[in-house]
Amino acid sequence: MKIIKRGYYVGERPLFGERDLVLEDTIFTDGESPLKESADIKLYGCMFKWKYPLWYSKNIYAKNCVWFEMARAGVWYTDNVTVEDCQIEAPKNFRRCRGVRLKNVSLPNAAETLWSCRDVTLEQATVKGDYLAMNSEDMKIDGLTLYGNYPFDGAKNVEIRNSRLISKDAFWNSENVTVRDSFISGEYLGWNAKNLTLINCTVESLQGLCYIDNLIMKNCKLINTTLAFEYSTVEADITGGIDSVLNPSGGRITADSIGELIVEKDKVDPSKTVVVCRDHCREAC
């Protein structure tokens, strides 16, 4: 295996198609696609300063590396890529990849990142940017701190644990998403989702959890969450109260109290939803 230490590369495609290569403390700048179509590459302490560094590559390992802001669209069409202890300042990273492992990473400018990827593990990551993980599948996430709107739009088969999501319109059009032991704050949570499960979560959401086919909530808190469950089929066990519920389509809702229960008989069939209040409800039909 060839080893390059403290390399400095400019211009386009300087290491195009390389195989079995270790790069240490190496800089790529002022040239696109430096490692395009490479395979079996290990990167330690390297810096990417220009566009498209890893496209159509396979078996990539990166540790203590930096993608600067102009290293945009950094990893596309690449399979089996592991990134640890790295800073990724560039947007639009990780697109149409398979086998992505991200651990202890920061992505402060992550707009349109992790799109249409499959088999993704994300562990201990801080991310800021809109449209994270759109249309991605088979994701396992633990310890994500997210600041950004519209995450996981169209995503499928996603498991999230121990995370904090500050995000408007999370999980729209998603399918088979389970979130455990997490905090979610943002308007219009989960609209048009199918099979969304929240366990031991705290949620704050204006008009959240609506238009969902098979919403399951176990031991969750709904704080300042109003007009919830509109046109959703729901099995919800809520700790504490719910400010207001509007026109659920069916299922069972259990809470300590419901400030306002609105069921419009011309829009939904009230007999299809069972509402249980441990304390009290105030209904306006």
Give a structural overview:
41% of the residues are buried. This protein has strands at residues 2-5, 8-10, 19-24, 27-29, 39-44, 47-48, 54-55, 58-63, 66-67, 75-76, 79-84, 87-88, 98-107, 118-128, 137-147, 156-161, 164-166, 175-180, 183-185, 194-199, 202-204, 213-222, 233-238, 241-246, 250-262, 273-284. 0% of the residues lie in helices and 53% in strands. The mean pLDDT is 96. Strands 15-16-18-20-22-21-19-17 form an eight-stranded parallel beta barrel. It has a five-stranded parallel beta sheet with strand order 2-4-6-9-12, with no helix packed on it. It has a two-stranded parallel ribbon with strand order 7-10. The protein has one domain (55-67, 75-284).
Keywords, separated by commas or semicolons:
eight-stranded parallel β-barrel; elongated
Q: Helices and strands: which structural class?
A: mainly beta
Radius of gyration, Cα only, in angstroms?
22 Å
Strands, count: 26
| Helicity level | under 10%
Number of domains: 1
Profile the largest sheet.
8 strands, parallel, barrel
Low-confidence stretches: none
User: Which series of helices and strands comes N to C?
Assistant: EEEEEEEEEEEEEEEEEEEEEEEEEE
Note the overall shape: elongated
Strand content: over 45%
Number of helices: 0
Give the strand order of the largest sheet, numbering strands 1, 2, ... along the chain: 15-16-18-20-22-21-19-17
N→C terminal distance: 73 Å
Mean pLDDT: 96
